[in-house]
Design brief:
The complex is a heterodimer. Chain A has one helix at 2-16, and strands at residues 21-35, 49-61, 66-77, 84-95, 99-106, 139-148, 151-158, 185-186, 196-205, 208-218, 223-229, 232-239, 241-253, 256-267, 270-286, 291-302, 314-323, 331-339, 346-355, 360-370, 386-394. Chain A is mainly beta. In chain A, strand 4 and strand 5 form a beta hairpin. Chain B is mainly beta. Chain B has a single domain (49-262), classed as Lipoprotein localisation LolA/LolB/LppX (outer membrane lipoprotein receptor (LolB), chain A), CATH 2.50.20. In chain B, strand 4 and strand 5 form a beta hairpin. Chain B is globular, with a radius of gyration of 20 Å. Classes of the chains: A mainly beta, B mainly beta. Chains A and B meet through strand 1, strand 2 and strand 15 of A and strand 2 and strand 6 of B.
Amino acid sequence: MFRTVLLTLFVLFYTVGAYAEESISTQVSLEQRLFWQSPVDPEQHSDSTILSIETEYAISWLEGTHGVIFTPFIQLDTDSIRDNTDVRELLWTYRQDTWEVRSGVGKVFWGQTESMHLVDIVNQTDLSGGVDGEDKLGQPMINIVFSREWGSASFFILPYFREREFPDSQGRLRYSVPVVPNRNEYEAGDEEHHLDLASRWHYIEGNAEVALSYFDGTSREPSFYTLKENDELGLVAFYPQVQQFGLESLYIDGSWIWKFEGIYRTYTNNHFHAMVAGVEYTQYGIFYSGFDLGWIVEYQFDSRDQHASAIGQNDLMLGARIVFNDLASTEVLIGFIQDMDDSSSHYGFIEASGRLSDSWKFKMESWFFSAKSPIDPLRHFERDNFLQASLHYYF
Amino acid sequence: MNIKFNQIVKVLAVALPLSSVASASLAVTPLSGLDVAKERKLRDTGWGDYQAETTMILRNAHGEESVRKLSINVLEVLDDGDKSINFFSYPKDIKGTALLSVSHIHSDDEQWLYLPALKRTKRIASSNKSGPFMGSEFSYEDLSSFEVEKSDYTLLRQEACGELTCFVLESVPKDKYSGYKKRISWIDTTHYRVQKTEFYDKRDTLLKTLTLFNYKQYLETYWRPHTMKMINHQSGKSTDLLTEEIRFKNGLSDSDFSQTQLKRVF
């Protein structure tokens, strides 16, 4: 598969390369995490320094009807815990007025809400990049998009599955029983080679947007079972076959944006539904200062886990976003998520970023987790509150 | 014969206010603010589409500067607001970020911001028009297309503006999301080009002054300023918007202003 894609690209480059337009840009990042509490398990390292490099090479020809984007990513950890190499994108696009084909390794985002991305299922989450789940691994795909007056319809053939990589026994922000590396189990006989299918229809009418999506294939999110090996407990990730129906909607009323995401997912002999619904209210140029201040309130519901303290089961998120509109493009995002059934169960974060010069940028984030109930999933991270600072160089 | 005469009267009724501009002595009906606004729009109708390479220089109250570069694509929409798509290329951390705007005369504008790191297209609230565009002193509404129906007009006076003569036109925005109580614009009587605009905030205090220079004519008809300077009197900040290159009639169509186009990196 991969070789075929590369060969096709190679041929395309050399047949039409003469009229091509190119661009290349690179981001180098240095990141340090600080955990101020000792870990649950003395084997866990307090996190180390991480260096990552992401380069994006883009080329287009025949007046932009053909394009290729290639984005390799490398992450190196001084303790080798969060090492990662990934092809974020290696995608060929052929574009016409009302349709386009994209083939190769790509990234796709589905969704509208802020506190959780329920519907977004095409790409695997890259946990080595961050705890918010917004970093994604590249996904092999063939994608066709039709854009007409009835909206845009997107169809995906996903020939290869990429597993979720969990921190190993030495990593922080892991389950109290670590996930056994390279011991995945699949419901599908052809394992990661199972052919997954997905489609999405998105329609915009003035101040309203709606999207319906369907996914049939290997769940990006595993379930776990416990394994005892050489007197050590470990979790084995099991990836079932699922069918997921997704609904996204959005409605704008002036400064208010109402957002909804809902999913219904079926497995063999099982099913559940979940949703996130909320509103974002933004005040622009508040108090004549030039600041934009946005407020986010979202409610999360999940029928899956009847344990009162499951994450997103019956939770309320409160958030604020401050955009300073200054030369440095300083932004701050604060979020707090409270379980509505258990007052001791909550977590929160603060993220800030800004430019130090035209080429340098800083980012900071801090997360805290609190849970008293022994069956609360947040309990695993209760001693993993952390502060993270990073420097980014762009050229 | 009678019918023909009526037609001539009608034609004259339309043409007269305009000719009165050229020679005030012929003025029969006094020129209204709305007439000036309509003529300004009429003289800038029919260009179709354009693509421009622009640089913004942002300056804070201490005189520190920061540069933004963007490519602008605009599609003229007759009888409604224009469509535009802006691709940011500098500083490099915002490379690939893109903004799609579909403006309307009688309903709320639609806007989407594409964030390349997340591959996410985010809808922006329509009330953001009073907010700063990319941290500059230009707000979104300052950069949106001029549409006659969006304001009420009063022609205050005519006066000299440099070597030209200008109409001094007051416009009061109808849109409740506008950040302004009023604008006062100096529009030259020769080509109906805006030379200067003063923006008054909701408290009717002078907030910003925009001056426009280096006008060049394209397609032998349309005038575009290559330098725009916005000064914020309340914060002491300013922004220069420089147009380096502008190309008309690129054959752009609706499909070049869709969500899929936001994601293009080339």
